[in-house]
Specification:
By secondary structure, this protein is mainly α. The chain contains four helices and no strands.
Amino acid sequence: MPQKCTTDAAMTVKQFIEPEVERRSLLIMTSLHFQEAFYAACWSAILKGLRDADCPRNLYQLIQKYF
């Protein structure tokens, strides 16, 4: 969206899903890939977020290896 950054979009998603996570609801999310966005992502922050959210170890390790 014009005048919006990736952080704004991520925070909107976070605000939307947090109550569902607290209720332990099933969540499914899709996203679009934009060229160079992967390389601009803060991988350490993503991994920290996964640890903080008690991401299953096997999924965490898969994502860590992918990064």
